[in-house]
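seq as requested:
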Amino acid sequence: MRTDTPRDGVDTPAIEPMTETLKIGVIGCGSISRRHMEASTRLEHVEITAASSRSSTSLDEVSGDYGISNLFTDWRELVQCDTVDAVLICLPDGLHEEATLDAARHGKHVLVEKPMSRTLSESESMVAAAAEADVVLMVAQSTRQVDSHRHARRLIQDGSIGTVISAVRRRHGNVIETVRDKAWYIDPQMSRDLLLYGLGSHEYDAMLWLLASEAKEVVAEGRKDQAIWPGWISIESTLTLRSGITCSVSMSATSEEAHGDTQIEGSKGSMAITQNRLTIDGQDMELPWDAVTTFATQLGEFAECVRTGREPGPSGRNVQATMAVLEGLHESLQCGGHVELAEIAVEWDG
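struct tokens:
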């Protein structure tokens, strides 16, 4: 453990079952963790008190930028730290299960980056460990915190476009160029696939959450080009939901221009959703978006769930429905044909 000068602060009164300020240790100090750290500065009762990274340079940077005083080069030491109530796991996908299980054993609440894990079975063991330790397990499905999506979901639930008939979601961009320096994305022990799991964990989760239904069957076709990237560079997929709705999701990792939207058709109207805009029957509603605000809302929900014991919307159990879709699509892409999914019976309240 490395110890630097503690950050100045004022003690706050304690409440049960934890101190009012949620003290979080960040495991992994890559680019995504910096957004979480910046988000924490916007919240009154959340403080990053510890961080771990194999890179001393990264630890020096986050210590200087965010005043983090407890620094570790091994996350297994961080989860034993008394100055930490919860952990935020920003490691490669293949380490999510191990880190979650270890954190739960030490009584730490867990917010884990998406995708929740590499496989559905790993996610099941994470849910079981959190339940046994009686700690909160939440997955960072941040699209659920985007205002345009939250407002769209409320309108769907209120019946504003009638009964949903179909939905199409697109996510196209050149994500490969942003990760070429991260070798773990092509290590099968660390990541099953960049496009399907890295991006798809957002897109398929958003579709299930917007329409409040698990999928019962999936099918997909994809394209690979080893000259560009070892994994899938495009995926076209169809989901049949248990509610009876048919959904399509289109993803590309090599598009020159980034674009993402969702079109939902209902019996009484239609809507189009982008990151900062919601259009209902041709009427535009602009809903500004920025990443740090979205992450702050997410972190605030996590803190509130730890404080009150409420189950998060994207709880570990809830996001198993997304992991089931990803696993089914992975099988369909490998073997061809439709894949039926077992029902998990998750709740869609939040």
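The chain is about 35% helix and 25% strand.
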